[in-house]
Design a protein that fits this description.
Length: 432
């Protein structure tokens, strides 16, 4: 009897500790999420519907051949993101605002107009991606896209920056579907390792075009614009500089690891089976089904949905940051319309217009993306040049400026990426 009473007492005394354990786990998760931020969000937003389509096309057409290029592109993206994040922390200003102050209103106006045109086009394609991803489950775009748009608008306009950032971080979870899809595709890991370490080149124009497109879709202008402004709005101080730098680099590594797994998944299935071209990311998901099983198709579709939702949320924010900073208007996620009318109005307009266009049957997304590709190709070298010049400025950055090997490698990154971007523009416009 006494043993039973002691057991009962121990059970009762243990029960109050259960909630504290749960709270402890919850707090650890929240601390971990708090360590993540704009770097992870910006880099993964670059893996949008257009990015997934490009990576899928690379894998379908050339298998694992271009994986070595992803290693170099990852280094480039990490350096660019690190520079943008550090400028945001040290100066407390977004990139567009720094360009306006340092180089005048003309350059700022040009960058703003280009960003506005390009981001509108990409935003439409990502809402189309949302419809296509849920279309794999039989949900019509006319239903799924407006619901997704309303949810995104509420997160941005009615929440705070902190709540929106946490939601954006959770929206990166579907990207884990791509590594699982790659494993289900049963690639030859020996060939994957060889392709990562040994550069392989081909002399045909299609190979060179996809190589250039791979760099262009991985490092896009709106990523850096969002990242720097978000770091500022996050309220990061110079004490946070090491953490923000690590987070920016870590976000680039994670995003490009995901991109590599997309190439591996499609290379192990579509390329091996002779399907060497796909029309869109949704087509790639459908094609994976018969080759790697329905779960691979399902996971690819989940990844596409997460990628499209995240990019569809980040693009209006990045665009509004640029316009507000260039023209000197109030900005901020969670601001009310009367506090920041231009910032909130542009976000709302982009979401509404993109939703309307995305639900139109037969909208020419490919033609739209080609035009966007040209604008982005012209804008990226300008953005990268300003990031390099500003990040190495002693007057602006003081002791935190880029110097030595980091500065030289960043300069080389800017030069090579800009050249590839301009080549892509020439190919697209003149059909070279």
């Amino acid at each position: 009897m006494r043993g039973s009473i002691r057991g009962l007492r121990s059970l009762v005394s243990a029960r109050p500790h259960l909630p504290s354990r749960l709270r402890s786990r919850r707090s650890r998760v929240l601390v971990f999420v708090g360590l993540l931020g704009p770097g992870l969000i910006a880099a993964n937003a670059g893996n949008d519907a257009g990015g997934v389509a490009t990576y899928s096309e690379v894998g379908a057409r050339y298998g694992y051949t271009l994986l070595w290029a992803m290693v170099l592109i990852t280094v480039s993206l990490a350096l660019v993101q690190r520079a943008a994040a550090r400028m945001g922390v040290v100066t407390g200003k977004g990139l567009a605002e720094l360009i306006r102050e340092r180089y005048g209103i003309r350059w700022s106006a040009f960058a703003t107009l280009a960003v506005l045109v390009a981001n509108f086009g990409i935003c439409i394609s990502d809402f189309v991606g949302v419809g296509a991803a849920l279309g794999l489950a039989g949900v019509p775009a006319q239903l799924s896209v407006p619901i997704a748009a309303a949810g995104i608008w509420l997160v941005i306009v009615r929440g705070s920056y902190r709540s929106a950032e946490r939601i954006f971080i959770w929206m990166t979870i579907p990207f884990f579907a791509y590594p699982v899809a790659a494993i289900l595709a049963h690639p030859d890991w020996g060939e994957v390792g060889h392709a990562l370490l040994v550069p392989q080149l081909q002399g045909n124009s299609e190979f060179l075009l996809l190589f250039v497109a791979l760099a262009g879709t991985t490092i896009t202008p709106y990523m850096q614009l969002y990242l720097q402004s978000a770091v500022v709005e996050r309220g990061a101080t110079e004490d946070d500089l090491p953490a923000e730098s690590r987070e920016a680099v870590g976000g680039a590594l994670f995003a490009n690891l995901v991109a590599s797994f997309i190439i591996i998944a499609t290379g192990a299935t579509l390329y091996v089976s002779g399907v060497h071209s796909i029309g869109s990311a949704a087509d790639a998901a459908k094609a994976l089904g018969p080759l790697a099983g329905q779960y691979a198709e399902l996971l690819f579709g989940i990844g596409l949905l997460g990628a499209s939702l995240l990019a569809a949320a980040i693009l209006p924010i990045a665009t509004s940051y640029v316009v507000a900073e260039s023209l000197g208007f109030e900005k901020g996620i969670g601001r009310r319309t009367e506090e920041a009318p231009v910032f909130i109005g542009l976000i709302t307009a982009m979401i509404v217009v993109s939703t309307i266009v995305a639900v139109i049957p037969g909208v020419p997304v490919i033609s739209l993306l080609i035009g966007v590709q040209v604008v982005n190709g012209l804008l990226l070298p300008i953005n990268l040049f300003f990031i390099w010049r500003l990040a190495r400025s002693e007057e602006l950055m003081g002791a935190h400026r880029n110097k030595g090997a980091v500065d030289w490698v960043t300069a080389a990154t800017v030069a090579v990426t800009s050249a590839l971007s301009l080549i892509l523009v020439a190919v697209t416009v003149f059909g070279l």
